[in-house]
């Protein structure tokens, strides 16, 4: 396994779109991709030599709640520790912006079958005894 280097807040739109395609994420328009990267609180990319092999973003308000978004590892580098390196970096970033003596929520939407990975990094599954299920609504067509 090649040495993995993390680079913060420096990923091009073409690279982001290429990685999304490589892992089978939904296709975005270029405008969506530009806006997504620009409006992120933090973006970290993992490189093996000069090749991007993974990335993740933090989105949110930076005070009460943040979300891990687009945690993507190129298929050639999955199950090699790259995802753990990225998620720990994302968690450290959120800890660095959390106000002293406060609690902040760090949420994510987990792909089916990936629960154990996130649980190994301290996340809890929903629903449970005290939390209901996470929910989503896709906005696609304009309503009259």
TrEMBL record:
Residues 2-143 form the N-acetyltransferase domain. It comes from the Bacteria. InterPro entries: Acetyltransferase_Butenolide, Acyl_CoA_acyltransferase, GNAT_dom. Transmembrane segments: none annotated. GO terms for molecular function: acyltransferase activity, transferring groups other than amino-acyl groups. This is Acetyltransferase, GNAT family. It comes from Anaerostipes caccae (strain DSM 14662 / CCUG 47493 / JCM 13470 / NCIMB 13811 / L1-92).
